[in-house]
């Protein structure tokens, strides 16, 4: 069994440009069930995240303003979504999905969140469609509950995990590792514990050879007892918001490198889906499905 946090499709009306990317949250579970990669009992629908856990990484002022829909117009523009109670509720469920998935991963070795990967959420603000940083919240939860002593966050999305880097900049118990496009958003990068910025059109060979060298070394040096993996598929050459040149097969091999090392070192891993904005929805679904397929083949 591989637990998968599932969130019903977001129903609140969104601007036209945001509706297409949201389709993957509905179509991905359908695809996994259709092909037999997952069965219905693998899926769980999370409750709302307790604000105690949110406040552990986000400021009370920001969270309270978010929940009360009191953010000023500039802050809402940075987030990019029209603010609504439904959107905030969904964000709280996503955060809880990552916490619950992390809890389950201690038994199953791997767990997924169909959504999540909201790595542009800072301690005191949201950015780029990210309001609450799900993997940061779950990381701090594991530390506070003494379920883990050292955490490694592996962020292989095409965008730097700037919010995650800021949240844990002074926390030696969480090591933040981000690969991303050098010229991609965010244009002002934060400082992760390790950042690797790739040039435009970086191909599979360079991307894969780099992480193949780095990830085992990080695990051996940092000795994490839990890993969070942000598996964005916006590294694809077809992605509208990415500038790298990876293929579907290269993206799949990337996932295999991460999971093979988690398995080798017997470290539980929670996976959040992250970005994916190729023009054809079938490309996005295939790339995300590959992540689940690879995990099932390894664990």
Automatic annotation (TrEMBL):
Name of a matching Pfam family: Hist_deacetyl
Highest taxon above the source species: Bacteria
Domain Histone deacetylase span(s) in chain numbering: 25-281
SUPFAM superfamilies, alphabetized: Arginase/deacetylase
Keywords tagged on the record: Hydrolase
Family stated for the protein in its record: Belongs to the histone deacetylase family.
Protein name: Histone deacetylase
Species this chain originates from: Flavobacterium ardleyense
């Amino acid at each position: 069994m591989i637990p998968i946090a599932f969130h019903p499709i977001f129903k609140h009306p969104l601007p036209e440009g945001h509706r297409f990317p949201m389709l993957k949250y509905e179509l991905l579970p359908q695809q996994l069930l259709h092909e037999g990669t997952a069965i219905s009992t693998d899926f769980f629908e999370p409750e709302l995240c307790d604000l105690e856990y949110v406040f552990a990484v986000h400021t009370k002022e920001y969270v309270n303003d978010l929940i009360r829909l009191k953010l000023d117009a500039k802050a809402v523009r940075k987030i990019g979504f029209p603010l609504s109670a439904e959107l905030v509720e969904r964000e709280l469920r996503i955060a809880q999905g990552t916490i619950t998935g992390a809890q389950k991963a201690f038994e199953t070795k791997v767990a997924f969140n169909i959504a999540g990967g909201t790595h542009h959420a800072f301690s005191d603000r949201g950015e780029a469609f990210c309001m609450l940083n799900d993997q940061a919240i779950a990381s701090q939860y594991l530390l506070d509950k003494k379920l883990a002593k050292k955490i490694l966050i592996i962020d292989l999305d095409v965008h730097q995990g700037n919010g995650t880097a800021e949240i844990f900049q002074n926390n030696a118990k969480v090591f933040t590792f981000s690969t991303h496009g050098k010229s991609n958003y965010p244009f002002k990068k934060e400082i992760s514990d390790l950042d690797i910025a790739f040039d435009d059109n970086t191909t599979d060979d360079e991307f894969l050879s780099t992480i193949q060298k780095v990830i085992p070394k990080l695990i051996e040096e940092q000795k994490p007892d839990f890993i969070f993996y942000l598996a964005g598929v916006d590294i694809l050459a077809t992605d509208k918001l990415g500038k790298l040149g990876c293929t579907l097969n290269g993206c799949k091999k990337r996932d295999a490198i991460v999971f093979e090392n988690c398995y080798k070192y017997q470290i539980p891993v929670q996976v959040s889906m992250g970005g994916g904005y190729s023009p054809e929805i079938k490309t996005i679904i295939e790339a995300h499905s590959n992540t689940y397929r690879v995990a099932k083949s390894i664990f």
